[in-house]
Amino acid sequence: MQIKSKSGRVFELPSDQEEAEINAGIDADPDARELTEREFQQLRPMGRPKAEVTKERITIRLSPEVVAKFRATGRGWQSRMDKALQEYLSNHNQSDIERLG
Q1: Domain that holds residue 69
Q2: How confident is the model at residue 79 (pLDDT cuts 50, 70, 90)?
Q3: CB–CB of 2/11 below 8 Å?
Q4: How far is C-alpha 4 from the geometric centre of its chain's CA atoms?
Q5: Across 1-96, where does the E strand assignment appear?
Q6: Is the dihedral of CA 77, 78, 83, 87 positive or negative?
Q7: Does residue 78 sit within a domain?
Q8: For residues 64 and 58, is the Cβ–Cβ distance under 8 A?
Q9: Would 23 be classed as within a structural domain?
Q10: Residue 68 pLDDT exceeds 90
């Protein structure tokens, strides 16, 4: 059986027989065992901790030159773009921003 992830990747799931063979192999391995309920409860989530302040996801159209310049700075370019916009806002008032439109 196949399933598709949110990103569009397709994964082939094992058949019932393959699943049984996998489980038999796990059962035969003395170093592999299922966690107890207590051990399972002690597990901690992996990955980045949740941010206290989250950003808003939007769709925006920007000129290719602007995007290329920021992308060329490498990983974190979107955060740098956000910071550049924040700096602009701190140095300009509302009427300056409205004149741009």
Answers
A1: 11-43+54-100
A2: very high
A3: yes
A4: 17
A5: 2-4, 10-12
A6: positive
A7: yes
A8: no
A9: yes
A10: yes
pTM metric for this prediction:
0.49
Residue 38: φ, ψ to 5°:
-65, -45
For the chain, the C-alpha Rg in angstroms (whole number) is 25
Distance of alpha carbon 71 from alpha carbon 56, whole angstroms: 20
Q: What is the pLDDT of residue 100?
A: 82
Sign of CA dihedral 53, 59, 63, 68: positive
In a domain, 5, yes or no: no
The tokens describing 2, both together, are 């196949």
pLDDT, tens only, 31-66: 988 888 999 999 988 888 888 888 899 999 999 999
Distances in Å between the Cα of 48 and the Cα atoms of 20, 28, 42, 44, 64 are 35, 35, 18, 12, 31
Question: What does pLDDT average to over the chain?
Answer: 91
Number of independent structural domains in the chain:
1
Give domain status of residue 95, yes or no. yes
